[in-house]
Every structure is written in C-alpha cells, then in structure tokens.
Amino acid sequence: MENPPITIASKSKAEKRKKSSLWGQVLQRFLKKKIALVGLGFLLFIFLFSLIGPFFSPYATEGVNPTQINLPPSSEHWLGTDKLGRDVLTRLMFAGRISLTVGVGAMVLSVTFGALLGILAGYYKGIIDQIVMRIADILMTLPSLPLLFIMAAVMSEWKVPTEQRLYIVMLMLSLVGWPGLARLVRSQVLSLRERQFIQATDALGLRDHRKLLNHLLPNIVPLLIVSGTLSIGGAILSESVLSYFGLGVVPPTASWGNMINAANSLIDFQKRPWLWIPPGIAIFLTVISINLLGDGLRDAIDPNMKRR
Amino acid sequence: MAKEPILQINQLLTQFYSDGGKVNAVNNVSLEIREGQTVCLVGESGCGKSATAMSVMGLIDPSSGQVSNGEVLFEGQDLLKMKKGDLRRLRGKDFAMIFQEPMSSLNPVLTIGEQITESIIEHELLSKKEAKQRGLELINLVGIGRGEEIFSSYPHQLSGGMLQRIMIAIAISCNPRLLIADEPTTALDVTIQAQILDLLRNLKEERNMSMLLITHDLGVVAEVADYVIVMYAGKIIEQGPVVELFKNPKHPYTKGLLAAKPVINQRREKLYTIPGQVPNLIDLQPSCYFSERCEHCMSICTTKQPPMKQIRDSHDVACWLYEEEVSV
Ligand SMILES: Nc1ncnc2c1ncn2[C@@H]1O[C@H](COP(=O)(O)OP(=O)(O)O)[C@@H](O)[C@H]1O
Ligand SMILES: [Mg+2]
C-alpha cells in the first residue's frame, strides 16, 4: 500500500478524551441538574429505607399486637401503630418494597412490550403497523383508570391469591402503559429507518434481527430510559389508587395505597392522621422525585428531545 | 478482453411515484461491467445515477418507487428475480456499496469496531475474536494507523476522510467481486478526495474487484475509469472507453461536460457552462431529452427519441447527429 498511515490529528486529543464516551457526556450534563440530583437522592433514600429499613426495625410487619392498638407516635413507635397494633413505620417500609416493585416491574414490562411492538411497527410498517397501532389506539382511547378497575374487579372475582395479585397488578399496569411508549418508539423508528446508516445496513446484507436489535434499538435507548423512568411514577400512582380502593394489592400485604385506605374511616381520618399521612407523603415525594429525575435525564441525554 | 461481464444490466426501468405521476428515474438503461473493469457513471445530479446503483443493490424503497422492468444479472443470476434471503446473502458479500456521505452512513451510537465486524460475522460466520482480527487488518489496509484506538471509537470522533476509509473497509470486508461507489469523494475535501481515489484504485487492483464508480467529476473519471457511461435525464446518451470518449466525444452533452471541466494551465475568462436545466422528468415527451439545451437541435430531436448507435468499437452514442438516415 502506498498510502501512508494517517493518525488522528493531535489537536483533537484533548477534545477526544472529553468526548470519548457518549454516556460520559450525558453524565456531565446530568450532574449539572441540581433538582434532578435531589430527586435521585430522595429516590435512593426511599429505596434504602424500604429495602434495608426493616432489618433495623424491632417489629415484624405482621407483628399484630392487641395490646398496642392505635397508639399515636411515640419514642417506641415513631409513627404510631394501626388498629391491629402493627408498627406503622415498619409497615411503611414493607409497603415501599411492594409499591416500588410494582412500579419498576410495570415499567420493565411496558418498556419491553412498547419497545418491541414500536420497533416492529415502525420498521415493517404496513399490516403489522396497522394491527399494533390500532390496538394501541383502542387501549389509549379507553380511560385507563376505569379499565384498571374493571380488570381488577375481574381479578378479584377469580380469587387470585393475595401474594400473586402484585404480579397481576404489574401486568395490568403495563397493559395500559405500553401503547404510549410504543407510539413514541414507532415514530422514532420511522424517522430512523430513513436515515442513511439504516439503509446502509441493507446494503451490507444484514439480517433483520441484527438491524432491529443492533442498529435500531441502541438508537432508542435514550428514549426508553427517559420514558421508562417517568412511567414508574405513573405506575406507582395507579397502583396506589387501585390498592386504596382495595382492588390492587390487598391486605395483609402492605402497599402505600392500601395503607392510605385507613383514611376511609372517618374516625381514623380525623383522629389518627399517623395512619394515612406517612404513606401519602411517601407516594407524593416518590412520584415527584421520579418526575424530576426523568426530566433531568431527558435534558441530559438529549437536550433537543421534545417534551412529551 | 473476452472476460465475462460480472454485472450486466438490461433495459432497466426504475420509477419513483410522485404527485404528478411516475418518474422514470432510470429509463431503459443497459450496461455491463467486466471482471476487473472500472466503469464510471457520470452525469449531472438528478440524472438517475444513484437510482441505478440502488436498483442494482435492490435498495429502492418500495414505498417510494420500484424497478418496473429489466434485468440485473450478477454473474448470470438475475438479482431482481431472486428471493429476498438469497439476495441478502449476496449483498455486502459478493457485491457491496459505498455511499456518498460517510458521516451519515455509520450508526452514531455504535463503535467503528462493531460496525466493521458486523458484516464479517454475518456473512462469514467468524467468531467475534476472529472478526476483530480481520477488522484491525482492514483498518490498517485502508491506511489508518492505531487500529485498536479506532476500533473502539465512535463515528463522531473521526474526520470525514477517515470515515470514508472505514466505509471502504466495511465494503471490502468480505472480499466482494463488485464494488459500487456512489460519489464516494463528493462530501470530502479536495486533498482527501485524491487519497480516497488512490485507495479505491489500489484496493481494486490488489483484490481484483470490478468497480462501478458514480461521479459527476470528470477529473475523477479521467483518473480511474476504464469505461465511461454518460447519463442524462435517466437515459444513457453516450458510452465508450475513457481515452476514446475524452478524445473524441460525440454527444453535444458529453462535449459540453468536457468543455465545462476546468483545466489547469488553461485558465479561461469564464468557465463554460451548458445553458439551461435538466428537464422535469415527469412530463417528458418522446424526444431527445437534451434537445432543449442543445445547440445542434434539429426538428427530429424534439419529436423522436434517438436510438443508441455504435460509432466505433464499444463507443455508442444516442444522438440524431450521427444517424445517416436523417437528412438535415
Ligand atoms: N426516493 C425518491 N423518491 C422520489 N423520487 C426520487 C427518489 N430518489 C430519487 N428520485 C428522483 O429520481 C431522479 C434521479 O435521482 P438520483 O438517482 O438520486 O440522481 P443522481 O444520483 O444522478 O443525482 C431525480 O429526479 C430524483 O428526484
Ligand atoms: Mg446521487
């Protein structure tokens, strides 16, 4: 070969180190978003609180104690006890495990369905697109809460064991969650497939699964991260609403939603605020934090990405 | 030179759908490329060069157009009639393509290494490790040093010239017998253009490939072509061996192109330009499509399409000026 080897111009060296990884840049931008960091910090706290907290608690979650019913907060029971004499703080931790699990699980499922169906619809267009998007449209035109109520009522009819309701709730939430995501993914794939590097993969004779998984998927990961994060908040809220009405996760399994259910009784509502205020605050702060984190991630990952 | 054509295109008709009807972007084009030959396809932008290449590759997007007629014989097999899977196995392996814009032809979120090894893994069923070895050799082969570093970098970290070298490396990674290069140097700096052309020419020699090089730059043609095909408004209007065509152009359009080419040491007051514009491909009447811009335009030119006529050995032209039957 006559061509002398060419090396990277030295001027770009410093520049290069900075740019060296796409995710490094994202991290730098993210670290500048103070509010998002606060959200992240609080989420970490909630995670640790729920996951590790119970190990430091002297009370068992099902620790029914008939002699300690409905006690107000004290040095022994920081958030008091409920009508069965269970420690509210400990229950709040276990409930956090459930609520966070449902939120994250529903997100993982809806991101999986949404990304898969969105990619297929956007890439193949035609009949596949028609079928997927019409189903998505139908699910999106039905108001999601009544839909969830109906499904939950059916689930109650079927007498699903208490421990498994959690997983059914996840599935239900992802069923109403995937259409929005599939739409976003599809529209992004529609524009990506017109880009030359996707056409170039055709010229290389790559098989479809390589094109979809190796080329399209990595390009929508930012979208999935942002939408996925934001959807956890929605899922936690919906789960809380369902559980509040006794249709989601039901006692004795604790969730933040069914703990607030205490507020349903007038006397608890007026006289025993320690029963329902803590889970309410937990839900509120968790959802707010998730949204702040999601917004921050969106700005950091793609400063130009449109707001939903 | 009795070598078999590696690619033979017969009466190719490629149409795009548009509001005003179907546009014949490639109109009855026939050409052949022999083993080891470099054929240059030249013409103004919009004359259907890319559409020809895309038709050969089978990359015309069915939602915007179609190949309506013709044959594309690659080593005797008609690519247009082939099953999708069979075509896919040939593409990228036996014939490959380089695009005009190296910056947009690589996936921005994948490393160079991932993209260079991909078609090797796909077509030659090598392991990741073996493919990486081959990838590093290729990076070296296309004249970039520090293979390991390049291998793990992302497209935005490299310059346009380097990216085009990478594109070439990817295209030749499975030792194709035919390389189609669609304006491979148009998006690059002039100094880089020459290097890339050299690289292509050397690789072609070393690996005994045939090449279809698309360009609108006659300087490029003069440097690398064995055989030149001039297109205008979707049709071939003249074709011939490069020396013959440059010395002895027949078609007024070819003459115009050659006259419009700047020549060093012969500075003129004003560069020659061909007057007028490429006609709108939608409402073309049977005529010589160049007639409106032609200074030798005769009455027959506006009413009848000139047939392809052999002037000399493998030098053909489609122009009424060279038809004896026509009495002027
Ligand atoms: N995807 C497309 N949809 C509609 N028309 C197209 C498309 N691609 C090319 N064309 C038309 O086909 C003709 C030839 O285009 P092209 O082959 O790209 O020209 P060249 O590569 O010679 O510059 C042009 O008139 C162009 O407008
Ligand atoms: Mg072109």
From TrEMBL, chain B:
Belongs to the ABC transporter superfamily. Residues 7-258 form the ABC transporter domain. PROSITE patterns: ABC_TRANSPORTER_1, ABC_TRANSPORTER_2. PANTHER family: DIPEPTIDE TRANSPORT ATP-BINDING PROTEIN DPPD (PTHR43297:SF2), OLIGOPEPTIDE TRANSPORT ATP-BINDING PROTEIN APPD (PTHR43297). It comes from Psychrobacillus soli. It holds the Pfam family oligo_HPY. It is found in: Cell membrane. This is ABC transporter ATP-binding protein. GO terms for molecular function: ATP binding; ATP hydrolysis activity. One of its GO terms (cellular component) is plasma membrane. GO terms for biological process: peptide transport. The keyword Transcription regulation does not apply. It is a peripheral membrane protein. Keywords: ATP-binding, Cell membrane, Membrane, Nucleotide-binding, Transport.
